[in-house]
Amino acid sequence: MTEVVIYSQMSKRAREMRVKCLRCGYCCHNACVVIVDDPKKGPIEDNLKIHTGEGKSCQHLRGNKPGGYSCAVHDEPWYADTPCAHHGQIENRPDMPCRMGVYVLKKHRVKPQLMEMESD
Ligand code: SF4
Ligand code: SF4
Question: Which end of the chain is more exposed for a tag (fewer CB within 10 A), N or C?
Fold first, then answer.
């Protein structure tokens, strides 16, 4: 059985650790994370899978350049219960931009301050 941390069960502190995503795409290509397979079914046990990362893009990732990526399931009502929704890395304030995103955009010469920043 796959174990998933449900967002509503997380501590307030853990929920506050979410970062402002700069849409660099790094984690959706490289993080090993539990994702929902069929968006129509939502996060039920038989519909979860491991996205292994390893440089492969998540099946829900859209876009083709750092700063321009987006998640196709981001607006689903169940998204808040997924591990992706509370991806927090090592930031310690919810209003901080993701430092990995800052690094990746800098590497690709995309200015973070020009990006629309989102926290979910
Ligand atoms: S589900 Fe969305 S946020 Fe999560 S890894 Fe896939 S594209 Fe990224
Ligand atoms: S900015 Fe951070 S949270 Fe957003 S895609 Fe990049 S690494 Fe992931």
Answer: N
Domain spans of the chain, in order of start: 7-114
Q: Is 92 helix (H, G, I), strand (E, B) or coil?
A: coil
Q: What is the average pLDDT value for the chain, to the nearest integer?
A: 81
Per residue in 31-88, pLDDT (tens digit) is: 999 999 999 999 999 999 999 999 999 999 999 999 999 999 999 999 988 988 877 6
Confidence of residue 94 (pLDDT cuts 50, 70, 90): low
Q: Ligand 2: which of 82, 98, 114, 115 to mutate, most ligand atoms within 8 Å of CB?
A: 98
* Nearest atom of ligand 1 to the alpha carbon of 51: 5
**Strand 70-71, strand 61-62: pairing:** antiparallel
Neighbours of 65 (CB within 10 A): 11
- Which of 84, 88, 85, 109 lies closest to 97, judged by CA? 88
Backbone torsions φ then ψ of 47, nearest 5 degrees: -115, 25
> Distance (Å, rounded) from C-alpha 114 to C-alpha 2?
39
